[in-house]
Specification:
binds guanosine-5'-diphosphate; 9 strands; about 300 residues; binds potassium ion; binds magnesium ion; alpha/beta
Length: about 300
């Protein structure tokens, strides 16, 4: 678990584009099967993490932006505003289009929403295995006429062509940041995200929402206890943004943190079907939460 910025980069990436252009195929290609399992778990936030790609020096967190990819259900003004706010909180937006189809009404609907935002928007022309290379420049140009894309990258999500290039280009745009998710998260414990949500829920509840959105829980470790193999040891850090919030979460003489731990532990034991030793820490980390915090705001308002 890395919280310092030793040149490590991380960020959030939202994938948008009309149905059937290959968004899911792309995600599955880059994040692999195990993450697909994880994203099927019920989650309390609407902005669900769809996949995490961790390399030696970076972490890319792909998130879903609800509603955006379903232009059939026209977003109300409020939803549209919230969605746009979400866009501002990501580091890169991938606008995926199919090289087989031409620019259409649905593309324009999505692109219209992106106008005026600060985040780099990449044009990803997918399905190039079905496109003659000579036709690519014209296709790219037709999209560039609609929007000022930061990059234009043709790929085949199905066959994998140029996908590494796309990931490298995304990497270039990521800010320095922490490794939000342990690299082994999914393979080891698909429950990890739910456990963090359980702890967060107790913390929010017991602090009576005095610290509503500026809190996150990072699961550092889930492992069998070294002495008692029937016991699972969970180490988690509650991230807050200010010292005052740290005080609130810990409570007088640590009473509140203890209560959070007790309640969360019971739920985690039910989830894992095993005795759990839960170790909770509280840490102030000023900026790291900003993005995810807003992503959560989105969820709570739903
Ligand atoms: P989504 O609706 O944007 O998530 O699109 P999907 O990922 O579900 O893909 C829709 C269809 O396009 C599926 O039949 C995929 O197999 C196909 N598809 C996705 N990517 C490619 C690609 O790179 N090449 C080809 N030929 N087909 C693709
Ligand atoms: Mg899909
Ligand atoms: K997936």
């Amino acid at each position: 678990m890395q919280l310092e910025n030793n040149g490590f980069k991380s960020g959030f990436i939202s994938i948008i584009g009309r149905p059937n252009v290959g968004k899911s195929t792309f995600l599955n290609r880059v994040v692999g099967q195990k993450i697909a399992i994880m994203s099927d778990k019920p989650q309390t936030t609407r902005n669900k993490v769809q996949g995490v790609v961790t390399t030696n020096d970076s972490q890319m967190i792909f998130i879903d932006t609800p509603g955006i990819n379903e232009p059939r259900h026209k977003l109300g003004d409020f939803m549209l505003k919230v969605a746009k706010n979400t866009f501002r909180e990501v580091d890169v937006l991938l606008f995926v289009a199919s090289g087989v189809d031409r620019v259409g009404k649905e593309d324009r609907y999505v692109l219209e929403m992106l106008k005026g935002i600060d985040v780099p928007v990449f044009l990803v022309i997918n399905k190039i295995d079905q496109v003659h290379p000579d036709n690519l420049p014209k296709i790219i140009e037709s999209y560039r006429n609609e929007f000022d894309f930061a990059e234009a990258i043709p790929i085949s999500a199905l066959e994998g062509n140029n996908v590494e290039t796309l990931l490298a280009k995304i990497n270039e745009r990521l800010p320095e940041g922490p490794q939000y998710y342990p690299a082994d998260q999914i393979t080891d414990h698909p429950e990890r995200f739910i456990i963090s949500e359980l702890i967060r829920e107790k913390a929010l509840h017991l602090t009576r929402e005095e610290i509503p959105h500026s809190i996150a829980v990072v699961i550092e470790k889930i492992a069998p206890d070294s002495e008692n193999k029937n016991m699972i040891r969970v180490q988690a850090t509650i991230m807050v943004e200010r010292d005052s919030q740290k005080g609130i979460v810990i409570g007088k003489k640590g009473v509140l943190l203890k209560q959070i731990g007790t309640r969360a532990r019971q739920d985690i034991e039910n989830l894992l079907g095993s005795k759990v030793y839960l170790e909770l820490w509280v840490k102030v980390q000023k900026d790291w939460r900003n993005k995810a915090m807003h992503l959560r705001d989105f969820g709570f308002r739903e």
